[in-house]
Amino acid sequence: MTHSVLVVEDEEDIAFPLVRTLEREGYAVTHVDTGGSALACLESPQPPDVVILDLGLPDMDGLDVCRQARSAGFEGAIMIVTARAGELDRVVGLDYGADDYLAKPFGLAELQARVRALLRRTLRSSASVPDGALRIDVAAHRVYAGDTEISLTAKEFEVLAVLAASRDMVVPREKLMAEVWDENWYGSTKTLDVTIGRLRHKLDGAGVHERVVAVRGVGFRLESGDAR
């Protein structure tokens, strides 16, 4: 089965290499350079499986494209790519219905890995929502195993949200500390280990298929259920 990808990017020097790379991977790729064109594609009888969406579009903000797409019922994966910096934009993008967030400049290999991960997650969720499937509602700050809610502290939730945004990839300890606590945090990094320990215990206790894995000397990775 050939999966389809919609690239929404108005900068040709970014769009063209990206389209060529994805086509070499075997995807059916459509490229548009405005938000209006993107929404038209998403409302077609055969919408794409994955949308790679730039925020800085000439006719409208990419966040509005994301919000309108979700409001219209688009259920495929949306990955935001942007040169905007900071945690606020990342969180806002996820709140608007995005599934992942990648800051420019980015490597094509990393983007390909994220597209593959998004497809695995989208195909699993479209087939069914089995017991133990991890669901994260960023807007509501709630986490579920299947249909059962898991009670997490604010820090546990934030750690999980950062790991889930880079699912199946290692997130360095330094990035977790900077995004969840503060880049100027002077306390012990054992705080992170304690939080990870509690998070693991709660996810395992709820029967979640995904697991948080430590990569010695580097950081942590949220592994998909099929990685077990």
Automatic annotation (TrEMBL):
The keyword DNA-binding applies. Residues 4-119 form the Response regulatory domain. SMART domains: REC, Trans_reg_C. The modification 4-aspartylphosphate is found at residue 54. It comes from the Bacteria. InterPro entries: CheY-like_superfamily, OmpR/PhoB-type_DNA-bd, Sig_transdc_resp-reg_receiver, WalR-like, WH-like_DNA-bd_sf. Keywords: DNA-binding, Phosphoprotein, Two-component regulatory system. Pfam families: Response_reg, Trans_reg_C. Residues 124-224 bind DNA. Residues 124-224 form the OmpR/PhoB-type domain. PANTHER family: PHOSPHATE REGULON TRANSCRIPTIONAL REGULATORY PROTEIN PHOB, REGULATOR OF RPOS. This is Response regulator transcription factor.
